[in-house]
Predict the 3D structure of the following.
Amino acid sequence: MRISAKIDYACRALLELSLHWPNKTPLQISEISRRQDISIQFLTQILISLKQLGYTESVRGKRGGYLLSRSPQDIKLDQVVVDLGSVGYSVAERTSDENSVMDQIWAEVDEAVLKAMANITFEDIANRQKSQENIVMFDI
């Protein structure tokens, strides 16, 4: 399975918003961009997509920005990947034989990966990030 840059960055943005949860103050695009090292132009496009898909909401104005539209506990990694597309290997890479054993194997692998992702929420990812930051702090 390939994860596109768009999906990776969307997940990073959702992670940053999950770390900010349940704070009701919007997180500015510039802050998400800085913390996750994503260009503001690309991040803007990603956040618009996430808003259209119902993952985020935007607040206008000088102190505006983005918030999650629901709890990180309710956002599953597999659904984000499916909603943003690019699941599995591309059609261009498939063989001309639709009964190819390798095509069947790759489809099974993709299905297994998505099934594993179904057990991961953005709350889990945020907790893992927080744990990792605590470990790094104690090593200093």
